[in-house]
Amino acid sequence: IDACGKAGDAERALRVFQRMRANGLKPHIVAYAALARPFAYRGDWVKVESIRQNMAADGVVMNEYFLYAQLLAYAVARPRQHDRAEQCFRDALSAGMEPNDHVVGALARAVGRGRCIELMNELC
Predict the structure, then answer these.
(1) CA distances to 48, 69, 83, 91 from 1, in Å
(2) For range 84-106, the mean pLDDT
(3) Rounded CA gap, 124 and 73, in Å?
(4) 45, 76, 85, 100 — which has fewest CB within 10 A?
């Protein structure tokens, strides 16, 4: 999944992921984050949100890598999804996640530097 994602082949990564699940393997957070990444680089926030919903249904808790991918999807999307990015960030922090530099950078790309600073001051 990761190799397909790094090669930019999101559809193949999805097929490998689905085949893994069909064979009875339960994916963990690393697999979900690797699957989300190539869709995020395309700005396909709808697909990343769908992956997030499946992940939650499987009882897998989001980590910083997945949060980064989700925020990146919102930042790269056209039009940019700043409201969704802000809500996603708020939800992650309220769930106890600590933002790292990559997450903050993706947030800044999604909502703008000024709003990112305001959110960091308000929430952190």
Answers:
(1) 15, 15, 30, 27
(2) 97
(3) 23
(4) 100
